[in-house]
Design goal:
alpha/beta; binds adenosine-5'-diphosphate; binds magnesium ion; 7 helices
Length: about 250
């Protein structure tokens, strides 16, 4: 990932009026229109918005996987990693080899990458499942493998596209708790597409509310609740109400 910064900054990412378009023979879609926001280094930021709001497209633009049409993207991170909604694991590789895959591509020798893979699997609570294949793992375990794979490169920016949306409540509760612990220990920046209001409030320093057609930022809210957050307290419910009202107004 190129480092576009000529000086160091407190921001891992600054987007200024970024627009992006899909243009093929069938359709011409302005997927993102004038998106502006910043990610402070070490912060946890969530994006919430309806299907088609351009959330996944935005992740791709941030990672440089898709070109934007106008505006400016200033990146100050070196090791971005991504976790997907559908896990995106290789079915023919066991958990250890899935986690080690990127390290193998980078040319690291087998012993070292297997050591790192086992360490990362332990960090996400899968220490005894290294030899299991994705088909032998539950949805929650697969997502933990996806997280371990992302952690293998010790990312400074972790992008997560609806990582909990295929998981049941109990599974996602325990994964959220582990993610918060991992976030703190790595000191990394996390940008997460979130589909549940309470999850966004529980996890985030900042929440970006997007709207569709064209994909745009409607509002940016900061969540100032102290951590660890009491998800049953009155302040928490107040924040949930505020965000619910913002989303109700825009949709
Ligand atoms: P979200 O992740 O918020 O649901 P997406 O980023 O997937 O939204 O899509 C934003 C818009 O761009 C939608 O209108 C969608 O139909 C369109 N789009 C997404 N991917 C493509 C593509 N590969 N080709 C053409 N249009 C696309
Ligand atoms: Mg999406």
């Amino acid at each position: 990932m190129p480092n576009d910064m000529s000086h160091s900054s407190d921001m891992a990412l600054v987007l200024s009026r970024v627009s992006a378009r899909f243009n093929d023979e069938k359709k011409n879609v302005l997927a993102l229109k004038d998106i502006s926001f910043s990610l402070p280094k070490g912060s946890f930021v969530s994006i919430i918005g309806p299907s088609g709001a351009g959330k996944s497209t935005l992740m791709r633009v941030i990672l440089g996987l898709m070109e934007h049409e106008s505006g400016e993207v200033v990146r100050d991170f070196e090791r971005p990693a991504m976790v997907f909604q559908n896990y995106a694991l290789f079915p023919w590789l066991n958990a250890r080899d899935n986690v080690a895959f990127g390290l193998r591509m980078s040319g690291m020798d087998r012993k070292k990458r297997e050591h790192i893979a086992c360490e990362k699997l332990k960090e996400v609570g899968l220490e005894r499942l290294e030899d299991h294949y994705p088909s032998q793992l539950s949805g929650g375990q697969r997502q933990r493998v996806g997280l371990a794979r992302a952690l293998a490169i010790s990312p400074d920016l972790l992008i997560m596209d609806e990582p909990f949306s295929n998981l049941d409540t109990i599974t996602s509760e325990s994964l959220k708790a582990d993610l918060l612990r991992i976030w703190r220990s790595y000191g990394m920046t996390i940008l997460m597409v979130n589909h549940l209001i309470p999850d966004a409030i529980e996890l985030s320093d900042q929440i970006i509310v997007m709207e569709a057609h064209p994909g745009r930022v409607e509002k940016t809210l900061s969540v100032d609740l102290p951590r660890p957050r009491d998800v049953r307290g009155p302040q928490f419910f107040k924040e949930v109400d505020v965000l619910t009202e913002v989303i109700r107004k825009v949709s």
